[in-house]
Fold this protein.
Amino acid sequence: MKSADIVHTAASPTQEVWLVQRAISGDAEAFASLYDTYVDRVYRFIFFRVGESRLAEDLTSQTFLKAWESVGRYQIRGLPFAAWLFRIARNKVIDNYRVSKETVSLEAALSTQPDPNGRVDEKVEGHLEIEQLRVALRRLTEDQRQVLTLKFIEGLSTKEISQITGKQEGAIRALQMRGLQALAQILGAANG
């Protein structure tokens, strides 16, 4: 089987292990397949932490560049490759905040050109809802924010989140519950 034979979609666990092994040995096509599999998920994870599409794109690129540079040292230990990627992404976001503490204004988020085929009011409302959610998420603890992002935006299981964060599954469930309760209170107060 060649790397090019793998379709650039979600790989099965067996295909993923094979692709990771090939990428570790320097196969750029195998790494490209892994990139195609995970780029959207990593981008969403980063976007919901930084709130700016250009910055999220830059940090996503940096994440995959770091992954490509480091993949030769990656060890397959039963953890999903995604866990390693999300750790790199998380570190890139943290590094970005250490360097610059800028925030995105609502005006900047809405400054994109409207789609002439779409309804502007629906798009503005969608942007406002996303901004409201981002603001609410920032009021949670870092651990709660990370767990909720991985669970509900990335769709990862509790076990996968446990592997990414290094926390026990029970702790993940508790963080999720407390985070959802806090988010409900924050959003309820904002809408009430």
Remarks:
- DSSP finds nine helices and no strands in the chain.
